[in-house]
């Protein structure tokens, strides 16, 4: 069990720290495109489509990384009044009622969505027709990473609810 | 189940989920799924995935991480900190000077960053201890920092305006131009209030003692200001200018701005790989958090529309017989009250898709209405029990400053924001003048 928790944490930390650099790449592509267009009147055809796709990859796939760091906005004022075990039980209920149904739906419907795109080898509408099926596949991948991290968090919460010790 | 019942239950579910302390993004997403099953059937999720994908396929929103990256680079490298010290020395001699310095620096930071976290932390860590040390009243000090820091999200460039623009289908450049007037108006009102109160009660904000300032002469201060405060200010004027002049899209200007910030950090000799890795990772986390609330809200509003919620709410508002202005004030009141519990992101994403069509149908102009919402949203940072600015400040406050000081301190500023909103209703030109001048496409 401990191994599973460490593996999931490690995976998402790794994904977050590596995929984060995509933003620097988008920045460079955009700066290069602006310079090429304004200074040399030679716009980079693929810059727009590529930036959009990489941005989608960036923010979707790092969602589980943000979850690991508890970065997602939430209201804690009422929860803070409960005991440590009470908080853990409430969090477990929230995960079961809200989190898992949503991310599982994201996986199921996202999978269909991506599969349809793969079947037709769909491309973008931009000037350069980039394939979009890769980026649509990001939706189910994000869902899998979220399910893994959510499971790890829930396991820790169950431990806390049983022992009263925050892991 | 009837549409009316589902509409009410969906909002009730939102309230329950939020009070349970679960992340907003997943509360919204989870409710979307539950109510898809209760109402139109789960097949509606096929459409919703499409709508989520259209948020992934959104060029405008790329400006969001770029502004976050800019703020991160500036604060992680210590540039913001130096900027604060320079401006503080410059304004130190004035009575209540630290208050004015705080407001001035907040405006500058607001303009360079576009998120409130960065400026709030800097001001709380740097300004608050020195204010306490010089005997400034704690309520006034914390109020100024909280209110000033919150301007970060109103004064352009701001990620809130990017998201508002993307959602309301208004040009982000026009929103930036429209926000400048109200942002400076609020800053002016804050400064006026501090000036008046320290004039009548000098003990609340005494000037910094001479011997403290004596160590540095005027020429040195000027040099420091030019070296530390000018480059970031010039940078932000460049970013805004290129958007207003129509040379670059918001995303392009933000990317170039982030790149120049990066060069500036190197020029100041503050660059290190670990600093950059931290900035990159933190940007990824914040961006994903913001964008995932958008994903969740997209699902939520998608199902809400499918069960006929928007039609029911606007029908109900019409049925009250309040007239256009009554409906307007009611909507602003809802935004204000929601601001006590939710932050701007949730309010914008849940309310705007419902309110904007109602406002337009009642004859209000979208740009003005969106900006009024943005101004009222300033209170969402300050209103207890849940206000971001309050928590940020409590987190970094020096010993002796309690949440009670902060709660009491923000009250006058909440009133000032309401006064500011009133002024923008009576004189809509505060909002619309600059966009009219800059953009020929507007009017």
Q: Measure the end-to-end span of chain B.
A: 45 Å
> Roughly how many Å is the radius of gyration of chain A?
20 Å
The portion of residues forming beta strands of chain A comes to under 5%
Written as H for each helix and E for each strand, in order along the chain, the element string of chain B is HHHHHHHHHHHHHHHHHHHHHH
Distance between the termini of chain A: 13 Å
Question: What features would you highlight for this structure?
Answer:
heterodimer, A: 167 residues, mainly alpha, B: 443 residues, 22 helices, 77% helix
Quick structural gist:
The complex is a heterodimer of chains A (167) and B (443). Helix content of chain A is 75%, strand content 0%. Chain A has 167 residues and is mostly helical.
Structural features, described:
The complex is a heterodimer of chains A (167) and B (443). Chain A has helices at residues 2-19, 22-40, 47-61, 63-68, 84-120, 133-163. Chain A is mainly alpha-helical and 167 residues long. By secondary structure, chain B is mainly α. Chain B has helices spanning 3-19, 24-38, 44-56, 63-76, 79-91, 97-113, 116-133, 138-150, 159-168, 172-200, 210-214, 218-228, 230-244, 250-267, 273-306, 309-319, 323-338, 344-361, 366-377, 388-396, 403-426, 429-438. The model of chain B has no long low-confidence stretch (mean pLDDT 85). The radius of gyration of chain B is 22 Å and the shape is globular.
């Amino acid at each position: 069990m401990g191994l599973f928790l460490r593996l999931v944490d490690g995976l998402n930390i790794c994904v977050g720290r590596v995929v984060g650099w995509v933003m620097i790449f988008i920045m460079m592509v955009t700066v290069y495109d602006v310079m090429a267009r304004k200074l040399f009147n030679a716009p980079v055809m693929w810059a727009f489509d590529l930036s959009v796709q990489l941005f989608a990859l960036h923010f979707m796939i790092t969602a589980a990384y943000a979850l690991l760091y508890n970065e997602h906005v939430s209201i804690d004022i009422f929860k803070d009044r409960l005991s440590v075990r009470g908080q853990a039980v409430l969090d477990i209920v929230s995960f079961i009622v809200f989190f898992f149904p949503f991310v599982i739906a994201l996986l199921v419907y996202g999978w269909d969505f991506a599969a349809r795109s793969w079947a037709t080898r769909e491309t973008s509408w931009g000037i350069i027709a980039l394939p979009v099926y890769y980026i649509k596949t990001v939706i189910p991948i994000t869902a899998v990473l979220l399910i893994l991290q959510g499971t790890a968090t829930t396991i820790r919460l169950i431990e806390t609810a049983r022992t009263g010790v925050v892991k | 189940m009837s549409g009316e019942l589902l509409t009410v239950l969906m909002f009730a579910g939102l309230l329950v989920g939020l009070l349970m302390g679960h992340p907003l993004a997943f509360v919204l997403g989870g409710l979307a799924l539950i109510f898809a099953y209760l109402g139109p059937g789960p097949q509606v999720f096929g459409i919703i995935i499409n709508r989520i994908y259209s948020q992934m396929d959104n060029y405008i929103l790329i400006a969001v991480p770029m502004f976050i990256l800019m703020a991160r680079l500036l604060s992680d490298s210590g540039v913001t900190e130096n900027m604060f010290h320079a401006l503080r020395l410059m304004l130190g001699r004035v009575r209540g000077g630290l208050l004015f310095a705080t407001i001035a620096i907040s405006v500058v930071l607001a303009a360079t960053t576009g998120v409130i976290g960065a400026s709030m932390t800097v001001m709380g860590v740097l300004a608050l201890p020195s204010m306490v040390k010089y005997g400034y009243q704690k309520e006034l000090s914390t109020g100024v920092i909280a209110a000033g820091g919150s301007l970060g999200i109103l004064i352009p460039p701001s990620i809130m305006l990017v998201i508002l623009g993307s959602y309301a289908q208004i040009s982000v450049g026009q929103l930036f131009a429209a926000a400048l007037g109200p942002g400076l108006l609020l800053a002016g009102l804050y400064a006026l209030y501090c000036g008046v109160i320290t004039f009548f009660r000098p003990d609340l904000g005494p000037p910094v003692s001479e011997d403290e300032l004596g160590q540095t002469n005027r020429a040195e201060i000027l040099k420091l200001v030019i070296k530390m405060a000018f480059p970031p200010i010039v940078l932000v004027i460049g970013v805004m200018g290129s958007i207003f002049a129509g040379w670059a899209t918001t995303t392009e200007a933000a990317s170039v701005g982030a790149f120049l910030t990066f060069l500036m950090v190197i020029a100041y000799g503050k660059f290190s790989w670990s600093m950059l890795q931290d900035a990159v990772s933190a940007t990824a986390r914040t961006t994903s958090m913001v964008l995932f609330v958008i994903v969740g809200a997209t699902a939520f509003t998608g199902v809400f529309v499918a069960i006929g919620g928007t039609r029911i709410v606007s029908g109900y508002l019409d049925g009250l017989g309040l007239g256009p202005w009554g409906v307007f004030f009611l909507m602003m009141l809802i935004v204000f009250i929601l601001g006590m519990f939710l932050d701007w992101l949730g309010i914008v994403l849940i309310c705007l898709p419902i309110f904007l069509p109602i406002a337009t149908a009642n004859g209000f102009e979208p740009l003005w209405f969106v900006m009024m919402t943005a101004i009222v949203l300033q209170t969402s940072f300050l209103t207890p029990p849940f206000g971001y600015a309050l928590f940020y400040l409590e987190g970094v406050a020096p010993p002796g400053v309690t949440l009670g000081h902060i709660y009491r301190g923000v009250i006058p500023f909440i009133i000032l924001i309401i006064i500011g909103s009133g002024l923008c209703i009576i004189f809509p030109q505060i909002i619309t003048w600059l966009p009219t001048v800059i953009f020929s496409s507007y009017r």
